[in-house]
Amino acid sequence: MRTSGAGEGSAVQSVDRAITILEIVAARGELGITEIAEELDVHKSTASRLVSALQHRNLLEQLGERGKYALSYGVVRLAAATTARLDVARLGQPICQQLAESLGETVNIAVTDGEAGITVAQEYGTAAITSQNWVGRRSPLHATGAGKVLLAWMPEEDRRPVLRRRLTRYTDETIVETAVLRTELARVLDEGHARSFEELEVGMHAVAVPVFSADGTVGSALSATGPAYRLPRRRARAIVADLRDGAAELSAKLGYRGE
């Protein structure tokens, strides 16, 4: 078993220095290796290794041959992802509230977080028994309604790693065979919504629909969750239309102009 030591301490120090470089370059606009080394109070070779790593991850770019370094498009990509999540949560919260009140069930908005989903907005239903608070929590993509929506509309190159790894079983209803999951995802695309009937938690049902971003991709999913006795399969299918209306409203707010 590995134990913590100098190696881990050095790694943490390198991460801290790399972040400091990004902060310095952001504040100054552009810097050379010598200037970065002086700011960090390290040898030029150390600064050069850190800058090379950041450049490799498209977080820094060199301005001309042997020139200074500036922030690259990778930083913009990371910032855009964060902004998109904040926009979805801010714009989607009133829609979640309206749906939760009309349906009586808990309504959530989830986005992808690596190979999982993460809830960014939630409103409890009016019924006495509601689901737990999932805001900020990660959930498996293959065992939830929202997760299946995100998987179904995910580019194949992003979906492939999820389907290659072993799928965790949470209940007897969880889909753990890749071929079966692919068939389910094809159905989700065909029907335009996903269902999870006791696949993550015994006694809980969920139904979800896609939310489209301005560029036409599916960046989030809107779902309703409730106990199986109150949200049986027939009712879960019946409320898909309400969820689609809410998702269409949110998609429009996010700039989507498609059908």
From TrEMBL:
One of its GO terms (biological process) is negative regulation of DNA-templated transcription. InterPro entries: GAF-like_dom_sf, HTH_MetabolicPath_Reg, Tscrpt_reg_IclR_C, Tscrpt_reg_IclR_N, WH-like_DNA-bd_sf, WH_DNA-bd_sf. GO terms for molecular function: DNA binding; DNA-binding transcription factor activity. Residues 12-73 form the HTH iclR-type domain. The keyword Transcription regulation applies. The keyword Heme does not apply. This is IclR family transcriptional regulator.
